[in-house]
Amino acid sequence: xxxxxxxxxxxxxxxxxxxxxxxxxxxxxxxxxxxxxxxxxxxxxxxxxxxxxxxxxxxxxxxxxxxxxxxxxxxxxxxxxxxxxxxxxxxxxxxxxxxxxxxxxxxxxxxxxxxxxxxxxxxxxxxxxxxxxxxxxxxxxxxxxxxxxxxxxxxxxxxxxxxxxxxxxxxxxxxxxxxxxxxxxxxxxxxxxxxxxxxxxxxxxxxxxxxxxxxxxxxxxxxxxxxxxxxxxxxxxxxxxxxxxxxxxxxxxxxxxxxxxxxxxxxxxxxxxxxxxxxxxxxxxxxxxxxxxx
Amino acid sequence: xxxxxxxxxxxxxxxxxxxxxxxxxxxxxxxxxxxxxxxxxxxxxxxxxxxxxxxxxxxxxxxxxxxxxxxxxxxxxxxxxxxxxxxxxxxxxxxxxxxxxxxxxxxxxxxxxxxxxxxxxxxxxxxxxxxxxxxxxxxxxxxxxxxxxxxxxxxxxxxxxxxxxxxxxxxxxxxxxxxxxxxxxxxxxxxxxxxxxxxxxxxxxxxxxxxxxxxxxxxxxxxxxxxxxxxxxxxxxxxxxxxxxxxxxxxxxxxxxxxxxxxxxxxxxxxxxxxxxxxxxxxxxxxxxxxxxxxxxxxxxxxxxxxxxxxxxxxxxxxxxxxxxxxxxxxxxxxxxxxxxxxxxxxxxxxxx
Lengths: 294, 353
Prior knowledge:
The complex is a heterodimer.
Chain A: H1 2-32, H2 39-54, H3 61-84, H4 92-114, E1 129-132, E2 135-138, H5 139-161, H6 163-173, H7 175-180, H8 185-210, H9 218-221, H10 224-231, H11 236-261, H12 265-280
Antiparallel strand pairs in A: 1-2
Helix pairs in contact in A: 1-5, 1-6, 1-8, 1-10, 1-11, 2-3, 2-4, 2-8, 3-8, 5-6, 5-8, 6-8, 10-11, 10-12, 11-12
Chain B: H1 14-18, H2 24-38, H3 46-71, H4 79-95, H5 101-120, H6 129-147, H7 152-155, E1 161-162, E2 167-168, E3 171-172, H8 176-199, H9 201-211, H10 213-218, H11 223-249, E4 251-252, H12 259-272, H13 277-301, H14 308-312, H15 315-330, H16 334-348
Antiparallel strand pairs in B: 1-4, 2-3
């Protein structure tokens, strides 16, 4: 029982970070309807950029973090302007293939710029962890979870209270209506990509404390797909809740199924979640249900 | 379609209008192409011969993708996974069940087709991105099942499986030179099938489903059956490609069928122009040539200071990503469109109207 609770706890903590990364994906989808296959690559790039500022350049966490945020926001805007904007009016498939192309470009660029070896952040979190009720949790997981939670709250505030966030939601409801209200739809797309890149970077930075930082972090980025499918593509709340669910199921698979299958159950669990969700409830837990016969 | 007709050719019969090969020069070019492609081993070294064989196999796989993605409009990210099923079932059927290769090939193609249909089942309820997810999941599930218990005793896990050389009578296909002919014949056959299936009732129904599934249903097309059929054909082609791949590579291993391969196949289709058979062939040859060029250029790039050495190892992927992005922005209809424009302007030369 204790083993089970321990696994659930770790899963929830890990899932918090998944939620944060998936949030960036949902933001892009909600505002522009673009499916971003390069979210995992943005996560890895973010972690590597942050590492560059913290470790070789030796900046403090706050200053280095701020620089990384600026870099990623610029990168996101640049991606949108150079590759997604020219695709306006093209079919969904073309846009999906475009982000797949971006993903494979980044996959090769990352190791050539940052090197393929595994890196780690200078130790910024205290070692050890909390112990209570026979369960233990390391500070890395706890701080990652709390930061993710904080970021999600900031995003929720941003989308419900600030002018920019409200404009982005208006764009997601309808481009023409938003335009007639005086919102620049194009620049909202750029903002969406910038915010998505930054949230991926923060997620990558947090994961970088738990696993090692390398271009192969992109495989963790593929976890956003089960999260967004389970939560519903266009639901921020759904993605916040689905993150921990996916995290818990993954860790449970690692804990219970791995001894039977000689490893790898944790990696394949997210895809089983995808298939089951698609068959039983394609629009996810909280997604908007499109009434359409296909 | 008629724009592509050479000037001065007037059809007097419907059969003539429908023919794939229309004029005497078409026949000439086709025969020359077949003879030339079969004569390739004479003037290629072993490295390029293996390149040609692999290219032909990939062409067959991408032709399968052409049905499901190009014609029917369902994005599939699992073609390499389906190819894995074809390869492994061939190897297992020969090794464990004692089939001859020539029986194992159609059997494993059918097995792959049926499994592809199973993974196409979500298309009953979802489309677009959701279906891409389902096929992505299938890619991972298939590879995982191959490498983990309980199936790994059958498939050899990460070590892979060997396939004995196929034989007909006294001829043993144990070298690249001999296997080349089998692969080449199959490639021409599959191109012919693909071209023809696209022209049948079913092929036209695929296009209708791609352009508007609602309108297709109103026209009396069973949309769901159509989508499943497209998955079945894609699986069939992938199965044949995988089956031909097994004796070529001799030891099949999971890394031959990674997600990266699936993505490359999709990229090849897009670069070539997703809506045509010629486009699929062009795309594969173009990307494979670029890949080969980057392999050759890679070492020489290391001499460029600063940017050279780090880029050299990853040149292939960088070029591939760039090519996809550039094509989607500047020529979304792919190489095929350029080829058609060239043909038309050549035929109308010197009158450009």
